[in-house]
Design a protein that fits this description.
Elements: E1 11-14, H1 18-29, E2 34-37
Parallel strand pairs: 1-2
Length: 45
Amino acid sequence: MVAMAALPGPVLVVGTGLLGTSIGLALREHGVEVLLRDTSPAAAH
């Protein structure tokens, strides 16, 4: 298992597709605050 370093603030994940969402969920499981943003108009619906 890899030790995670403490982060000073939230992590912004740009892209809420399969990869971005998976990364965001994995970070949340480790107690990291995650902000999601997507530039695709389809993501707004």
